[in-house]
């Protein structure tokens, strides 16, 4: 099959792309959320988030960063969480505020986290409570002034949110004790942001959008400076390659790869956002039985992954 693809498909790929199709990633988000407003954008733990809700919540978070915290265009905001509904809300909120996203691996050690926060100059961080104990150990040695905490179930319906958060903390004991005085909850930030005025910043395609850090396997992790245009060029290249196989507003994609990695961020998040796709977020893909259960309820048309993930699925006994 792959050999046939390679012979046939490249002939259909355009020789040039338009990396300035949108004036910025803000423009992309605004157009996508308006075009597909009533369709589901993301699903996590059975909870859907529509494009309309994504627009509203990300705008509220942007307003909170601007007016609630007083951050300015170009300020760095770190995101340290697995695949949850909170991630795209925070991601697009930071971008819509004209600020720079610093994606952080939740499994970082204190030393790795300290380096990335200091190297990026992050002044705020959105972090899941499961990893707050790591931040506690180093936050005083960084420039971080604002900590926004969220729990795994915080964007679910009230009853399920309470149940998930209780099980995660008290049954599975996945939230080590931490002390972060002055931290605010993500839900509080959204509630406050809804009452604040959002000021759409003047952002050009050559403005910085991401500080995306390398794996650090051969030395200290380094932040790749990615502009809005860089990300759009990658998006356009991906769309040129796979676009003919995808239908606007009709694709259901499984996102088990972490969105804080550049591949899933570009393909699963940005590409399927631009196409109006429905995105199933898998928080813990290592839980293969739980992953398979989620797949059985989701009629997916696309899935991305690495060989270890597909091998685990192939060898699952269910």
Strands side by side in the biggest sheet: 7-6-5-3-4-8-9
Number of domains: 1
Please give the number of β-strands. Answer: 12
Main β-sheet: number of strands, strand sense, barrel status?
A: 7 strands, mixed
Structural class: alpha/beta
| Oligomeric status | single chain
How would you state the average pLDDT, rounded?
93
Q: Evaluate the radius of gyration.
A: 19 Å
Rounded to the nearest angstrom, the distance between the terminal CA atoms is 27 Å
Residue fraction in strands: 15-25%
Q: What would your notes on this structure say?
A:
The chain is of the alpha/beta class and 318 residues long. The chain has one domain (17-314): Rossmann fold, CATH 3.40.50. It has helices at 2-8, 25-35, 51-68, 86-96, 110-120, 132-138, 158-171, 186-194, 228-242, 262-274, 288-296, 307-314, and strands at residues 40-44, 47-50, 76-80, 100-103, 124-128, 146-150, 184-185, 208-213, 223-227, 252-255, 278-281, 302-304. Strands 7-6-5-3-4-8-9 form a seven-stranded mixed beta sheet. A five-stranded mixed beta sheet has the order 2-1-11-10-12. Helix 2 (25-35) packs antiparallel against helix 3 (51-68), helix 3 (51-68) crosses helix 4 (86-96) and helix 3 (51-68) crosses helix 8 (186-194). The longest helix has 18 residues, at 51-68. The model is unreliable at 1-9 (pLDDT under 50).
Helix and strand topology:
Blueprint: H1 2-8, H2 25-35, E1 40-44, E2 47-50, H3 51-68, E3 76-80, H4 86-96, E4 100-103, H5 110-120, E5 124-128, H6 132-138, E6 146-150, H7 158-171, E7 184-185, H8 186-194, E8 208-213, E9 223-227, H9 228-242, E10 252-255, H10 262-274, E11 278-281, H11 288-296, E12 302-304, H12 307-314
Parallel strand pairs: 1-11, 3-4, 3-5, 4-8, 5-6, 6-7, 10-11, 10-12
Antiparallel strand pairs: 1-2, 8-9
């Amino acid at each position: 099959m792959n050999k046939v693809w390679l012979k046939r498909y490249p002939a259909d790929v355009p020789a040039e792309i338009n990396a300035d199709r949108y004036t910025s990633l803000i423009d992309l988000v605004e157009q996508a959320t308006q075009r597909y407003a009533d369709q589901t954008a993301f699903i996590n733990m059975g909870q859907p988030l529509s494009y309309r809700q994504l627009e509203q919540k990300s705008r509220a978070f942007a307003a909170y960063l601007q007016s609630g915290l007083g951050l300015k265009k170009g300020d760095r905001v770190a995101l340290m969480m697995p695949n949850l509904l909170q991630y795209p809300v925070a991601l697009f909120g930071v971008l819509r505020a004209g600020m720079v996203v610093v994606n952080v691996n939740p499994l970082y050690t204190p030393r790795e986290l300290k380096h990335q926060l200091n190297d990026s100059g992050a002044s705020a961080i959105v972090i899941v409570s499961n990893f707050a104990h790591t931040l506690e150990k180093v936050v005083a040695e960084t420039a971080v002034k604002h900590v926004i905490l969220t729990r795994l179930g915080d964007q679910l319906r009230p009853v399920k949110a309470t149940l998930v958060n209780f099980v995660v903390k008290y049954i599975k004991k996945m939230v080590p004790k931490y002390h972060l005085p002055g931290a605010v909850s993500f839900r509080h930030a959204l509630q406050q942001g809804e009452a604040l005025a959002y000021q759409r910043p003047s952002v050009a395609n050559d403005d910085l959008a991401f500080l995306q850090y390398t794996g650090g396997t051969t030395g200290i992790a380094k932040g790749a400076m990615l502009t809005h245009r860089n990300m759009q060029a990658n998006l356009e290249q991906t769309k040129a390659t796979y676009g003919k196989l995808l239908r606007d507003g009709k694709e259901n994609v499984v996102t088990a790869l972490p969105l804080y990695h550049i591949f899933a961020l570009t393909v699963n998040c940005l590409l399927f956002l631009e196409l109006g796709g429905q995105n199933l977020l898998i928080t813990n893909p290592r839980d293969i039985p739980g992953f398979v259960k989620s797949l059985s309820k989701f009629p997916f048309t696309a899935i991305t992954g690495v060989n270890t993930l597909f091998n685990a699925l192939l060898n699952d006994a269910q």
